[in-house]
Amino acid sequence: MDNGQTINDRNMLFEDVVKEWLEHKKANVKESTFTQIEVIIRNHVLPTFGYKKIMTIHRPEIKRWIAAFGELDKNGKEKYSFGSRLKYLSVMKSILHYAVHELEVIEKNPADKLRVPVQDSVAIKKEKVKYFSLEELNQLLDFMKTYKYQRFPDYQLYYVFMYFLSKTGLRISEALALRWEDINGDKITIDKQTSRDDNNKVKLTTLKNSSSYRTMKIDPGLVRKLKKFKLKQNELILGNERFHKNEDSIIFQNCHGHYLTPSTIRETMQDYCKKAGVEYKGTHGFRHTHTVLLLESGASLKYVSNRLGHKTIKTTADTYLDITEKIEEDELQKFASYTKR
Predict the structure, then answer these.
(1) Do the bridges between strand 214-217 and strand 202-205 make them parallel or antiparallel, or are there none, so unpaired?
(2) For residue 120, is pLDDT > 60?
(3) Where is the Tyr recombinase domain positioned along the sequence (predicted)?
(4) Which of 40, 147, 166, 243 has the largest count of CB atoms under 10 Å?
(5) Residues 12, 14: Cα–Cα separation, whole Å
(6) CB 110 within 8 A of CB 62
(7) Residue 241 has what DSSP assignment?
C-alpha cells in the first residue's frame, strides 16, 4: 500500500493459482494442447511447487528446478530433452504471468527472462530433416504398386496413401480426416484433422493454426489415382460383405470401415520400407519429401509454405534450411555462369 499497489491474497497456494490458470487456458487453446499442458503440470510442476505459497516462490528455486531436468543419467544423456524443458519453463512462466497480471497476487514474475540452461554450453543441434530422394521414393512406390495384400489383394490402401502423401505434403492427421466430399475436381479442401482420446478413440479436431485451413490443387496423375481407388473401394463395399463402409465416407479407410491409427501406419510403413529395400524416414517423411522435391524443382518458398499450411515463410525456411541453402548456392552458380565474361 505504501507503493500505491494493492496486492490480493499473498498467501494463495501455487496449486490454487494453477487451477485458475487452467480454467483460463482451457477456453483459449485446442483440446489436445490443453491435455499436454495438464500432463506437464501434473507430472513436472505441481510436485515441486504445488504446496507452496505463491509469494514464497523465487527465481533461484525456479532455476534449480529447470536445471534438474537437464541433469545427465547414468548413460551420460540428459534426463529430458531441450525441447521438453523449454515447454516446462514456458508453462511455468505463463502461470506466474497470470498470477501477476490477472490475479494480482504477486508483484512481478520471478521466471521472467529466465532461460533453459544448455549442458556444458554446447549448442543444441538442429534435428536433421529426413526425406526420400526421388530415386528412393520411386523405388518404394514401385514396390507398393505391385504388392498384393493378404485379405483384399486389389485394395491398394497403403500404396495410394503413400502416393497421396508424397504428392500433397499433407500431415498424416490431415490426410486421415479427408472425406471424398473434400475433393472437388483437382482441388482438395483441408479443414480438419484426426486425433485420439485417452481411450485411443478417434475424434476430429480443428487444425494446427489458421494457415492450416487451405484448399490445394493436385496434379492430374493423382486425380486419376484417387478416382480409380474410389471405384475399387465402392466395388468392395457393394460386392463384399466382409468389407465395411466408413460412416464418415473417409478416403483412407481400412477394410473394417475404420480410421487408420498412427501407430499402425508407423509399423506398417516400416515393414513396407524394409521389404522395398528403402530406409524408413518416419511418419513425417512423405511431407518432408514433397517439400524438398518442390524446392528442388524450382517452386518458390512462398508457394511451398502456403501448400504446407505453415503460419509463416520463416517456419518453412527454418525447417528446410539445409535444402534452401543448397538451392540458393546452385542458383548463384547459375547466375555466375550466365554473367561470366
Answers:
(1) unpaired
(2) no
(3) 127-333
(4) 166
(5) 7
(6) yes
(7) T
**Burial of 80 (C-beta count, 10 Å sphere; 0-12/13-18/19+):** middle
pLDDT at position 72, please? 83
Q: Which superfamily, per CATH, for 14-121? A: Tyrosine recombinase, N-terminal domain (1.10.150.130)
Question: What are the distances in angstroms from CA 158 to CA 176, 260, 267, 290, 292?
Answer: 12, 10, 12, 17, 22
CA–CA–CA angle 297, 300, 302 (5° rounding) = 145
| CATH number of the structural domain 134-330 | 1.10.443.10
Confidence band of 119 (pLDDT split at 50, 70, 90): low
Burial class (CB in 10 A: 0-12, 13-18, 19+), 44: buried
Average pLDDT over residues 193-205: 84
Whether 19 shows a pLDDT value over 80: the answer reads: yes
pTM: 0.72
The reported pLDDT for the residue numbered 1 is 57
Q: How confident is the model at residue 71 (pLDDT cuts 50, 70, 90)?
A: confident
In the prediction, which pLDDT does 200 show? 76
Alpha carbons within 13 A on the beta-carbon side of 49:
29
Nearest to 218 by CA among 157, 97, 307, 340: 307
Burial status of residue 164 (CB atoms within 10 A of its CB: 0-12, 13-18, 19 or more): buried
- Could you give the CA distance from residue 254 to residue 244 in angstroms, rounded to a whole number? 8
Number of neighbours of residue 176 by Cβ within 10 angstroms: 24
Residue pair 289/167 in contact by the 8 Å Cβ criterion: no
Closest C-alpha among 315, 286, 27, 273 to residue 173: 286
Full DSSP string of 86-113 = HHHHHHHHHHHHHIIIII--SSS-TTTT
